[in-house]
Amino acid sequence: MHAPQDTTLAPDEMVALAEGALADIARVKESVGRVIFGQESVVEQTVIAILAGGHALLVGVPGLAKTKLVETLGFALGLDARRIQFTPDLMPSDIVGSEVMDQDETGRRSFRFIKGPVFAQLLMADEINRASPRTQSALLQSMQEYHVTIAGARHDLPAPFHVLATQNPLEQEGTYPLPEAQLDRFLMQVDVLYPDLEAERRILLETTGTNDQKAVAVLTAARLREIQALVRRMPVAPSVVEAILTLVRSARPGNGHKEADAHIAWGPGPRASQSLMTCVRARALYEGRLAPSIDDVMALAEPILQHRMALNFAARAEGMSVRDVIAALKRDVSGS
What we know:
Helicase, Ruva Protein, domain 3, five-stranded parallel β-sheet
């Protein structure tokens, strides 16, 4: 599904490219940190998803700066960012665009395609579960295929193209939960939690005055694509590959893992392994390292696996969560 690793680069050339990327990513972190306080893991996971070339689903209650994060990232990464507020009456054409009829001076009529907001490099789909399944699938198809088809004509989306969707876990009345196959299109699910005391104190002091901090543009879209290509070239040690395979396969019932057999209804497919393989490389770069480790696998296990598996009735009756099961799987893998 992914292109094979490019091994044509000499080691010293690879190191030079990686060190340039490390410096750029450090500047992105610094730029975003001027505006977003106390959400280090959220920023890390979201940037990793973009560096890995994928999409992310941000889940959190209102007022935790999810929209501000997307705007800030778009500016810092040099991307054309747009936002769609999903509502029950939103139509697929409101996202992908539609054809209108034009008439010239001679009276000749023709159709012209007007692009929708999906033609952006970074798209925020706000409260994606509030739109109907038909509208959700229009966006999710674009995420998977990187083009839209209108009246039989194909229109390619810009490159790079990333979707950061948000979902409110509280009010579920009048919403349309994303089906499992559509959730799988997201590289990772990022849980946005309340800030700690010091971060919230800083928010109070720095965002309620007259001097509002702004992010600094660090990258361009072309430079981001170069870093994304570099991420896919990074070597991964056999021990890290084995940790990924062991973790993902242990999360499937019927593979001999006691925890999975007892509590999981269905587990993650090969796309989870692919996602981990790409994201551990991106996390290594984000953390300032030239090679991923097993610690990267453990750190990314929850955001990459939690939306790709479901608990059975017995586990739900016991009050367990998917996070509890993933924590148990991680303990077994890291202890093995």
